[in-house]
Amino acid sequence: MAVALAVAPQLLPRLSAIARQVVTDHRGVMSSIGRLLEHLLRSPRARRIDRVSGCLHDKWREARRLSDGTFDPRIKKTTDQAWARRHGTDEVDIANTRYDDLPVDWQKDNRESATVAVRVIDAARRNGADLRHEDFMEDAGEQVHDEWLRRNKDWAPPEQSLKYADLSEAEKEKDRVVVREALNVLHSK
Asked: Whole-model pTM?
């Protein structure tokens, strides 16, 4: 190789670029393998939470569906540096991105809501509660709201900063949707 470089020094920049591309491709492949292994090694509960999280994201996106099957864009910045490196940008269209492909900071709220819903449903099942009863739905909705408010109290708008009992029906329904979607996902197994 030293002979080739002495004969053709113009090859050095090209070989250097090829080497950089090989390293970048290798990192991408290794990252994909790592994500796959991480997914496979997750507990059954974590996989259930992932399914509910994805369903919640899809439910949110559905209201943004356009006639061509895409979704009205919603561009956001991400702080997920690994995601930004893989995609070459720190901006993500959260409406036109599947849940599994979102940066971790934009998966977070759905994952946290799903975690609460799965925990509440599991506890209710253990206690023999009727998951179809209105009392269960209201209690579960209240728990989802209380946890959401705990996480978001610093920026929550006034109409969402209230105790569950004081929320409007429209705001309560947002919390019930989380529970309903979790029940649908968990019962469809």
From this structure: 0.75
The SS3 call for residue 92 is: strand
Could you tell me the maximum CA-CA distance found in the chain, to the nearest angstrom? 82
- Which residues contact residue 65 at a Cβ distance below 8 angstroms, ignoring those fewer than 6 apart? 71, 72
- The CA distances from residue 46 to 12, 77, 84, 144, in Å, are 48, 26, 25, 18
Each residue's pLDDT tens digit, 31-48? 778 777 776 777 899 999
**Distance of alpha carbon 102 from alpha carbon 91, whole angstroms:** 11
Which of 74, 73, 77, 83 lies closest to 104, judged by CA? 83
Q: Is 138 helix (H, G, I), strand (E, B) or coil?
A: helix
Q: How far apart are CA 114 and CA 120, in angstroms?
A: 10
User: Are 92 and 83 a contacting pair, CB within 8 Å?
Assistant: yes
Q: What is the pLDDT of residues 121-173, one digit of tens each?
A: 999 999 999 999 999 999 999 999 999 999 999 999 999 999 999 999 999 99
